[in-house]
Amino acid sequence: MGASWKKPVSMKICAIITLLSCFITLPTIAKSISTDKKTDKNNIEASKAQNQKPQTQAPKSQTTNPNSQTPNSEATKPLDNKTIEERLDTIEKTQEEMGAFIGSGNLVHTLFSKNFDLGGFILARYSNINGSDRSTNGINRIEAELIQNADLGDKFSIGASEEFELERPVTYLDGFGRRQPQFLNLESKATVDTAWINYAWKDKLEIQAGRYITPIGIINIQHFDPIFITPEKPLFLRPDEGGQTLFPDLLNGIQAHGKFFIGKLQRVLKYHLFAGNFTGTETRGGTPENIDYGARLSYAINEHLVMGANYLHGKRVLFTKSNYNLYGADLDANYKKLLFQSEYFTTEEQFGRNRQAYYFQPAVQVTPKWILFYRYDYLKNGEALSNVSGTEIWGLINSGRDDTENLLGFRYKPIDAIAIRLSVGLAHFAAGTVDGVNFRSANSVVTLLNFTAAI
Fold this sequence. Notes:
Elements: H1 9-52, H2 81-102, E1 115-130, E2 135-151, E3 156-167, E4 170-172, E5 181-183, E6 187-202, E7 205-213, H3 219-222, E8 250-262, E9 267-278, E10 291-302, E11 305-317, E12 321-335, E13 338-349, E14 356-365, E15 370-380, E16 384-386, E17 395-398, E18 402-415, E19 418-429, E20 432-434, E21 437-439, E22 442-454
């Protein structure tokens, strides 16, 4: 660091006290100058009136009454405009210097919005992967995301999020065998994650258009990393962003959504009806020119129990373009210190094997800062194009290459804005056949350590 860090502690304390004194006295000085300016104006007017008044008697001597004050006394001599301006200039200069030192309080200026929310987070991940025949480790992901929302009036709002990421993707030296993991070279990307405009007619009906999060399930809707308990999404949501192992995580299109309050207990029924283009490319298993559409219903019995049902019709790329229907259900529950999440999905594929995925995730809120969690995760990926080799060379996975993952870990939040998540997982890749080549089953012990700071 610089030399300033080597100064004695007493000098640092004096500097802090001086800075605090400026903060405390600055408003008082400004108020005093404002009062002086008003008093001076009154004194000038009084002086003019006194000079215009006929002198019927001589003014009393200042020595005869020391407590008397006349317009000619030094104590009440009015300040001229130049003196007042000099004082105000001094105050303004002090304010500018303080503003340059501590920064302006007006961080964001808006043109037409009623209010503007700016948030985001940074994430750093350390990964250790012990494969069946090889191991690798290192910091393989650094991410920063900005999130903005603004109300344009009583009905309209807009929102956007942008992601900036440095990542070393995991590859396998033995390709589809997945027994020899290795990190690729560092890659960087900057993408617009979401960008939408929303019209809220009533609670019962809102219309949103643009690039939005596909309203399917629990974790995909939560979407942003600081919300999660675990350091990694479930298997069916990998690869992260732009993939559709089961369904697209983002869509470019339009959706209608709303909520109804039911009964005296104010139970909440929410719905989403949506349609849009898949945001990825055909190399990620999608057909961007195709319109996917679907619906979601969720019912909150109370703040402790929410159930959801999902449907989506889409098209994905296999050896040819294949239509599919997806059906799903989810449950989010909590009771005192116990937390529970689970999602289940199954598909009907036009070509290839039907797919299936589910997980269940119990957790315990040990203290307000500590959560312990476990997750069992299952994915039957079916027949699909997959680039587990980490390149643009894709192969056809046929027969039952099922994956499972057992994850155990904790989340610690020293303050609300910071989360440290550690997990140790056992990943199992079932034996299977790729392009006529048989592969043995493989196992990996994956240790993930995530650090997240949010604003």
